[in-house]
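Inverse folding, one chain.
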């Protein structure tokens, strides 16, 4: 992740001013309590805060689910060791948020928090969560919502770093299926999304290498002509990077 991505990810979504004052106050009070409790754990059990977040994460009210996802992000930033301890439960809650059927805000906050947590745990011991996160994130790369697209590209790029041997074959197939989206969004209408896409394209580049099964093929035959044409026109420097690293 570059500095721009880190900066935007670190910025919380603004609380809409159209919300009733009572609701806005309630949300701000909740986040203040989470942050305060994480700093002064001796006065209140972190377990109670975690239970509260888990309950809100599954609440029928989308705003409460959104608050829970953000609260989990606060936990990841302020008490990473505790998040590692409850890693499986936290990931389960975030994956459920990622697949939220109603709220784009819940999905967006889930992706932001997943990006933070994956960085804290270095992608270790994700198990089948890696598949669940990858599949849903890939579908969000073409979403109409700029925030969702941006966070999806950042998260997808991070997944590329943590696929490892176990998920290499699976992730390679996902990147191949995502190739058109990567090309399209290099010219995204939102410059921040386009920049995130370019960074992710580089992160995914090792998975775009073609297997040279036929040794008699020429170097030109082994290259992906569609990818080469589009990159040479729009992003010659990215094409040069691929050539230099023998990706194309």
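Residues assigned per position:
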């Amino acid at each position: 992740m570059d500095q721009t991505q880190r900066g935007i990810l670190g910025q919380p979504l603004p609380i809409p001013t159209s919300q009733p004052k009572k609701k806005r106050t309630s949300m701000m009070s909740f986040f203040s309590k989470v942050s305060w409790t994480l700093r002064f754990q001796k006065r209140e059990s972190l377990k109670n805060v975690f239970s509260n977040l888990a309950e809100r994460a599954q609440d029928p009210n989308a705003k409460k689910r959104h608050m829970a996802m953000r609260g989990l992000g606060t936990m990841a930033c302020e008490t990473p060791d505790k998040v590692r301890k409850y890693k499986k439960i936290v990931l389960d809650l975030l994956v459920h948020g990622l697949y939220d059927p109603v709220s784009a805000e819940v999905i967006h906050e889930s992706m932001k928090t997943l990006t933070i947590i994956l960085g804290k745990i270095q992608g270790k011991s994700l198990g089948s969560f890696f598949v669940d996160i990858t599949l849903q994130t890939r579908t969000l790369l073409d979403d109409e919502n700029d925030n969702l697209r941006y966070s999806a590209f950042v998260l997808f790029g991070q997944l590329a770093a943590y696929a490892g041997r176990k998920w290499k074959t699976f992730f390679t197939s996902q990147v191949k299926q995502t190739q058109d989206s990567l090309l399209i969004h290099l010219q995204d209408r939102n410059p921040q999304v386009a920049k995130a896409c370019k960074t992710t394209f580089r992160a995914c580049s090792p998975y775009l290498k073609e297997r040279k099964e036929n040794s008699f093929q020429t170097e030109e035959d082994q290259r992906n002509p569609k990818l080469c044409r589009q990159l040479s026109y729009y992003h010659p420097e990215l094409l040069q990077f691929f050539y230099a690293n023998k990706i194309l």
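The chain has two domains: 44-206, 209-213+222-247. The chain has a mean pLDDT of 77.
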